[in-house]
Amino acid sequence: ILSRRSQKNKEAILSISTGDMKERIAFWILSLTQRNATDIRIIAKQRDLYGYFGVQRAVLLSSLAELKQEKIIDYTPTEVVILDRRALRDLLIEEIGYYEADE
């Protein structure tokens, strides 16, 4: 029998691997960054990102644009700048009800 924490971790991973693109981007960024980090820039070409996430270019760009409009990130063709890491965490908590890494 899985413990409650293990079960929630499993549910979170399943949700992120098959869920909304914004959730997947949020999880990816949070997994690469430290909780109290500032001036966060992730160097990554967009073509590498849509390959990494296994989605079409338009799907990735649409999700990045939504996050930019919400003032959570900014991006260029070669980098993602995190403006509000806490909002990414809140997005995951809101959508899947759980995000353990920052506890």
Automatic annotation (TrEMBL):
InterPro entries: HTH_CRP, RmlC-like_jellyroll, WH_DNA-bd_sf. It comes from the Bacteria. Residues 23-91 form the HTH crp-type domain. GO terms for biological process: regulation of DNA-templated transcription. GO terms for molecular function: DNA binding. This is Helix-turn-helix domain-containing protein. It comes from Candidatus Barnesiella excrementipullorum.
